[in-house]
Task: structure prediction
Amino acid sequence: MNALALHTDKYQINMMYAHWANGTHRNRAVFDMYFRKPPFANGYAVFAGLERVVRYVQELRFTEEELDYLAGQEEGYSPDFLEVLRSLRFTGEIYSVPEGTIVFPGEPLMRIEAPILEAQLIETALLNFVNYQTLVATKAARIKHIAGEDGLLEFGTRRAQEADAAVWGARAAYLAGFHATSNLRAGMLFGIPTKGTHAHSWVQMHDSESEAFDRFAAALPDQVTLLVDTYDTLRSGVPNAIRTAKAMEARGKRMQAIRLDSGDLAYLSKRARAMLDEAGLSYVRIVASNDLDEHILFDLKAQGARIDTWGVGTKLITAKDDPALGGVYKLVAREQAGILKPVIKISANPEKVTTPGAKEVYRIINRQSGKAIADYIASVEETDMQEGKPLRLFDPIHPYLQQEVGEYEAIPLLQPVFQKGKLVYDLPGIEHARAFHREGLRQFWPEYLRRMNPEKYPVDLSPNLWQMRERLLQAHMR
Ligand SMILES: Nc1ncnc2c1ncn2[C@@H]1O[C@H](COP(=O)(O)OP(=O)(O)OP(=O)(O)O)[C@@H](O)[C@H]1O
Ligand SMILES: O=P(O)(O)OC[C@H]1O[C@H](OP(=O)(O)OP(=O)(O)O)[C@H](O)[C@@H]1O
Ligand SMILES: O=C(O)c1cccnc1
Result:
């Protein structure tokens, strides 16, 4: 089940076949991956999915079963073509921003340079991995932004769009600042912390709530979080939890928390906090869950809710309010007579006109403030920004919006990941990627990071690139 070469759209194989039939399948091509609009009307996205992409590319090969399946297709692919597929391996270059990077619309997140046969094959899988993981990481970052230093638990597996989404979504949430997941497989696969409380069924399996609480505490004395809303949160759940906590104290143990899972979470948490404090149990924390997202968190905090840890499931793992990131993979250069020539895709919508050529992205940091001013896309041959020469920044759609910058640092965002088909990138561990993400956020003024109506962060083109795009546009308009 791990074979993923056919995890692609049929049109990719058909184009690959037609290239092969015409003898052009070894011509080199350059593709950019980027998105046009951040999800959730957020100001940015959090890039995720590279680890999955690396594993996929490393293992990319057609199995006999896959080749047999292709041989039976109505297209009648020639056996000689299937032989070419049998020996296909990725031999090209992939550049990518690291996982956890704060990214913006219109800038290349990945650049793929390879024979067209390979570059075309991997499009679908790369978009599949990066679109989903980036979406969930971005949703998680929004929730984290509101939660601040509170605890955040990922509870989404039961509502996720199948098993892969559950584990990679749990990883994306951790990358963006969640503290643990309830999914043990994600914990094992990625080395992320796991946490669990108990369900209503535990209470219902006993003759009384207090018996259920005592038996749970006896079995797992160091990991006791009791769900207090099975019958009546304030009349029975919290008083029973207090009795159990006191009995634990007599055995030298401390209850960790209670969990609220229904009703008015602001009111109930304040009342529960007061009851716990009055009983001398100020160390017992309060966990809340029930269809939470960043908006409800914001509201609950505004109401003075006394919640220490938030369990978030459905709305995070399914990105319920904006469930697809529209990342695309567009051809920007192709080999002609042995050299790579930029190509353009024209659209009546100026935002959809592609930016031709192999490009690098630089994050321009103001040396005085240490904050990011803009991202600057230049052709790979341009070196002005590495040499610190003054830059003219202007909006590619509204070129009259301009500024000059002198004292800056230009950080290249795209890193080499594969070179001539070999992995040259040291994949950072998840803890490292998570810390990198947290540090990256510090580079941005809060105006770009706020939950509602964020400022638009500038993503600009170098004058050279802009002129080249204009030239190609004019040439096609004639
Ligand atoms: N004080 C509050 N302010 C804003 N939203 C809240 C507050 N308390 C709870 N919520 C949210 O309101 C929604 C209430 O969900 P729902 O209508 O299912 O009620 P419930 O209390 O869970 O009922 P049930 O007992 O049927 O589960 C949830 O998304 C919850 O997180
Ligand atoms: O609400 P979410 O953000 O998706 O978090 C996960 C939910 O899963 C559990 O509920 P359960 O499966 O028992 O269903 P219910 O509480 O919705 O009835 C848990 O009690 C949370 O409420
Ligand atoms: O551990 C929990 O409390 C939990 C796990 C999954 C879903 N809801 C709650």
Q: What stands out?
A: Residues 116-147 form the longest helix (32 residues). The two ends are 51 Å apart (CA to CA). The pocket of nicotinic acid (ligand 3) is lined by residues 155, 182, 196-197, 289, 311, 313 (CB under 6 Å). The chain is about 35% helix and 20% strand.
